[in-house]
Amino acid sequence: MSHPHPELSAPPELPAGGLRVIPLGGLGEVGRNMTVFEYDGRLLVVDCGVLFPDDSQPGVDLILPDFGPIRDRLDAVEAIVLTHGHEDHIGATPYLLRERQDIPLVGSELTLALVNSKLREHRLRQTPFYTVKEGDRISFGPFDLEFVAVNHSIPDALAVAIRTGAGMVLHTGDFKMDQLPLDGRITDLRAFARLGEEGVDLFLTDSTNAEVPGFTTAERRITPVLEQAFAESSQRIIVACFASHVHRVQQVLDAAVKHNRKVAYVGRSMVRNMAIARDLGYLTVPPGVMVEAKELADLAPERQVLISTGSQGEPLSALARIAQRSHNFVHLQEGDTVILASSLIPGNENAVYRVINGLMRLGARVVHKGNALVHVSGHASAGELLYCYNIVRPRNVLPVHGEVRHMLANGELAKATGVENVVYAEDGVVVDLVDGVASVVGKVECGYVFVDGQSVGDVTESELKDRRILGEEGFISVIVVVDSVSGKVSAGPEIHARGHAWVDSDFESIKQPIVDAVNRSLDEGTTDTYQLQQTVRRTIGRWVSNTHKRRPMIIPVVVEA
Ligand SMILES: [Zn+2]
Ligand SMILES: [Zn+2]
Fold this sequence. Notes:
This protein is an alpha/beta fold. Helices cover about 30% and strands about 25% of the residues. It contains 16 helices and 26 strands.
């Protein structure tokens, strides 16, 4: 990724007594959140998440933060603090721990339980866990941490106050200010106020919804809408939501009991996460309501509810397979109801609407965010952010967690409440807090790291470009044999193409020009096969572009015989 701040160079040495903030992901995108704090030569990591690829990154499974800037200093990392259990905050943790297994992990009970199941998949067993809850205070090296309850779209989320000799940082994590949450656990504004009284030198705040005016709607408002959808359904109901949205699943379970339906989970992450949430007491499962997915099919359709993953249109998810009629045991019937009780993450629009269209083509009634209040955001809107700034009264603000537009809107809100120093940074841009003032001091190299199957970081942006060209334009191979004695083309060109409606006769007219071009190069004394291949590439490339308006990948092969 090209860096948005060409004017910046490597940061100078951190002044004694200063705190350095190095965002390695999540500033400039919604996903792969990771921020490094440095004080007195020691490092603290807050969050270590993944970003999911979009249509322009074919074949990529996940995108990680770039650990490059701290790779040589992993011994200096005191701990990784995980603010909550969403993938964009915990998903890359196993990849960082693969580089140093014994970095302590700090987080709430649910967060650590969710990350633990990932560590087991990666066979990581030597990581110390420090379970914390709101109000707890614990030190790692020079970092004195205090945790504050925040309300979000997953239970047990925490903000963290980080005290060092440079002052106090307050990082909200992801949060909103639902005043009547289903679990009664509100964002602790009293703690925010207390920390504000003590003096917050740098406030890192969730920017996701900074452009949205007013207040985020309460989760409770969804309950009657779900109830209504249940009441109107005379057949099977399928609800798709995030596999971590415990409260949404709770609402569905409660509605199912009320309407005399049984529930089954489909999707591996849904089954796993809800078992964890139930075992730890975050999800209350009414007796007798759950059945195995395969048993559910034996019940009458009007008694069935499936809770499934795939609300973002992920192509391999249960919901996508149901929409394509390729699920092994869930077969959609005309008149079934599908409820997408989830947000639409930017970039997923095409995939989600593809699934919705597929479901509707099969005769399903689809209830989604666009036609009913079946989802509310997990993030604070502008009104809530204003409250926070007024309560905390921070000296410096660094908007985090968002695209550029979100972070700029968030900074404007801070300024409107009288915050004098708002610092904007993107991934890799280094911010120092020295003598109570935060400022941008430089940048570190920080790119995308792609996970593709078993490989991490081997796939590069240029290979993705090749994949896009192959996917959109196809390829043409050209084989030419050169006689090294006569210095002339002796056979070929043999031309093959894939990916477009080419037929071999399409290439007849370009064969002689290729022979002529190669012979001319040979006459001029070129013997290097790479250069001859470039001649072939140029000749056929120009012709394909002019006559067919295409730019396929061209693979020229020149063989000496
Ligand atoms: Zn979150
Ligand atoms: Zn997040």
